[in-house]
Amino acid sequence: MLGAATVPDGNHDREWTETEFLSAMMQWHFDPGTGSPFWLERARSLDFDPRRDVRTHADLRLFPNVANELRVVPLEDLVPRGYGDHPDIIGAYDSGGTTGAPKRVLLLSDWFTSLLAWKSGRMDALGFPHRANWLTLAPTGPHIFGRLMAELPRMRGGINFTVDLDPRWVRRSLQEGRGDEAGRYAEHVVDQAESVLLHQKVGVLVATPPLLERMAERDELVAAINEKVSVIMWGGAHLDADTRAVLQHDVFPNVRLCGQYGSTMILGGTMERPAGDGGSGPCVFDSFSPYVTFEVVDPGTGAAVADGERGQVVMHHLSKSMLLPNNLERDEATHVPAQPGALGVSVADVTPVAVFEQAQVIEGVY
Q1: pTM, two decimal places
Q2: Percent composition of the chain: helix, strand, coil (DSSP 3-state, to 5)
Q3: Mean pLDDT for the chain?
């Protein structure tokens, strides 16, 4: 049986080659003594042996996309046996149900610690301040994004002000043709944000692009943001290049705009790559390699697209706490070469596909 100490967990002090990393993960998740009940049972139907046949990143495409099975799998079956009888579980989180019943995953404390440290390091590279207060406009449980945003301000030395969102209600309102109700809800959220921003010290603002556009319509609020806020971190919905340029240069010229991109199915997300062009180029997202990696594929054939071409995003998660390879996401993006030494590719200009799993994709406010 593979010892837990030999499994990469994001906090290791040694370098792993691609083959070493993948071999260690396959051994952990498919050894009867350490793997999860879900994958040990699922392995019976695979037409390959992960412990023998997965040696390169490209080999992850051998796996079927099992994400839809996470709509009904008992969450206890996802915990690797190698954690013992008392795994330290932060909580259960789900995909948001944009295109059907939610897919559910567990967040274990060791992965959460590794992810937070990595994201905080990216924030340092992007110029996020320490000891600054945050205002986060984001959903709480069962969304993992809210949990991440609650912890990052604390570990970076600030107070976190929050305004809760219910993106499912907004999407349902839009889907049922009740756009006025969705609009009233969004204004209700902005009203709460304005109350904090006008009267409190806030150095980091976390919001979705649709909410930022609504904020831009309020002169007093725009003035307060430009005076107080150092960084606006946007995510949860796409932001086209033209709107991003207007927000950055015309509306919030005194504030740095930084994007983030992720998915509950990879148990987190990534920050944009620090830009050397002043933010005039495409917004590029690097993954938390080797634990989280991206590919961009032709949605018709499944073949990887060339550098600079657009396709649908495939995400892989390989950590000690969870295995979810070959997951086709509801986004399309441009293939960008990954940073030296990273597995997979990076992605730019991320936008939602129009239809995913036979359902119309509605972003709403998140």
Answers
A1: 0.92
A2: 35, 25, 40
A3: 91
